Amino acid sequence: MADKTAIRAEAERLQAVFLAKGVQPVTLEFLQPAGTLLDLYGEDIRARAYVTFDPVHGEQMLRPDFTVPVVQMHMTDGAEPARYTYLGDVFRKQDAGSIRAREYLQLGYEVFDRANPVAADAEVFGLFAEALAGHKPQAVTGDIGLLIAAVKGLSTSERRRAALLRHIWRPGRFRALLDRFSDRGDMPATRANILEKLQNSDAAELVSAAGPEIGLRSADEVVARLDTLKEDATVAPIPEPERQAISDILALSGTVQHAAVALEEIAQAYPAIAEAVARFQARVALLPNPSEIGFEGSYGRTLMEYYDGFVFGFSLPGADIPVATGGRYDALTRVLGQGRSIPAVGGVIRPDLLVAEGAR
Amino acid sequence: MSLRLGVPSKGRLMEQTFDWFSARGVRLSRSGSDREYAAAVDGVEGVSLVLTSAGEIPRELENGRLHLGVTGTDLIREQLPFWESQVFELAALGFGHADLILAVPKFWVDVETLDDLDAAAAAFRGIHGFRMRIATKYHRLVREHLKAHGVADYQIVDSQGATEGTVAQRTAELIADITSTGATLEANHLKMLQGPPILQSQAMLLGSRQAGWAAVSDAATALSGQLGLTLPTDLS
Fold first, then answer.
1. Does residue B236 belong to any structural domain of this protein?
2. Beta strand segments in A253-349, E
């Protein structure tokens, strides 16, 4: 483990790059309400965050990252547009025996600006590239916005589109649903079985015959889902060109310049993504040294569920944890903003990994 | 110093463990009254028997206070995330078979698979405003299983006993628990989800990688010889 003093010095040196641009420094609370984080991240966060109990405020978590407190602070009393930088410890529970850090500094930069989201994406990426230039990292990017546009444009039921959107961040389940909705592969035997039963009997009778109604999920809810299953069985499969387009986007791998060309071809076969592709191309035009920036169609899907647009990561050669990650999270501001929202993009740097690399 | 062997301190697991050792010429017994956990080993020199709860044995192996221990694979996997670097499996004992499974109310005729569960969980959250609750004591195993299968919109609530009753009491919507026959599920109007269980567990004789083996090498050689087992060669 590198010396904490050296890590802080490196962090402050990097933050000076941000401060020199006139960015507002902010300091945030260590303790965060567990309920908000659980709502956003799901049960997985419990395995990663330290949870403690407060007799007045209920369950609290030691901040696993700064995104939630930054967004909440901005939505409560932030001026627009706003650019913030923060530097502080975050805490991640690690399994016994793991060598990963449980407590480490994060240096962040976040932009809340409605004017030109594509330019803001490029601004954040460019600033990170500048701050990290001495370490010669490899940059990889992705664009969740392309996938969201591709799903929203599918010729299928609203329910199927919603199911796919919900699982964009779970690649395995997303793929399984896409295949099922495209009638590739057999219907699961259990599903065929229940649909057959529904042909011959009333849904409510099936439910009451199966067992007593216990627990909070009511028989009405079960019947409602049976109706949904019946209705879903009549939906036409997703047309092959549309399924193929999503598959092609996910398989993209190369530089952002290569992706810009490939995406234009995909958009010709599937015009629903044309607008998202135009945004992608506009962004590429603003990125520094695009011939050296990687693009992966699936990048960012397993980073954080709240990223919904441009995503990026910087890695040092041979390291398995990126030294910097970030992305756009417009939808998160809507969730935390209680009705209000603002386009937002940002990222974090891990100075400890940079110092460790320097020591090697 | 003697080699410390940990065995569950009561019930069928203890009796079956005693039988397993006895069939191999090592007689374990609980001395004195039924209330006291004093114990004896006949048939091998230098081995002392520690009777303790099956749930304590993984930690005692991990920290090296036991050299050998008998417990369920479910408890090892739940409590020791890096179990392979902390303990080694010596012998599957052939009893204590049980599956860790997910179970939902029988009247949920729309839910048979994890896939269904995920869709029902999304609808439940929309209606009730919170995530579907799963009662279990196997937090880590359940969470990893559901993550691997892309199930979202659930939360785990801790249940250390009488887990099957939590659904009727409305403190959970479904459960994850160990079952061998399914009779308790049936009695509580629950059914297992289809597909492979989260974990197939059975009683296992394990060794600790943290324990000091050098000081007990004679006993270790004698005991493993008597049981017909081979200890790893890289123990310190």
1. no
2. 253-255, 293-296, 310-315, 324-328, 344-349
pLDDT in tens, A331-342: 889 988 888 899
pTM: 0.87
Burial class (CB in 10 A: 0-12, 13-18, 19+), A66: buried
Using CA atoms in the order A160, A166, A171, A172, what is the torsion angle rounded to 10 degrees? -60
What's the complex ipTM?
A: 0.86
Provide the domain count of chain A: 3
Q: How far apart are CA B65 and CA B4, in angstroms?
A: 8
Q: CA-to-CA distance for A358 and A189, rounded, in angstroms?
A: 56
- Do B164 and B212 lie in one domain? The reply is no
- Pick the residue of A40, A201, A217 with the most B CBs within 10 A to test the interface with B by mutation: A217
The type of residue at A295 is F
Query: Do A133 and A143 belong together in one domain?
Result: no
Assess contact for A308 and A326: CB atoms under 8 A: no
A207 lies within 8 A of chain B by CB: yes
Domain span at residue B8 reads 3-97+202-227
Neighbours of B70 (CB within 10 A): 27
Q: Which of A91, A148, A153 is nearest to A328 (CA)?
A: A148
What range does the domain containing A43 cover? 1-137+319-331+338-360
Q: What is the pLDDT of residues B91-135, one digit of tens each?
A: 999 999 999 999 999 999 999 999 999 999 999 999 999 999 999
DSSP code, position A62: E
Rounded to 10 deg, the angle between the A240-251 and A144-152 helix axes is 170
Among candidates B116, B139, B167 on the partner chain, residue whose Cβ is nearest the Cβ of A215: B167
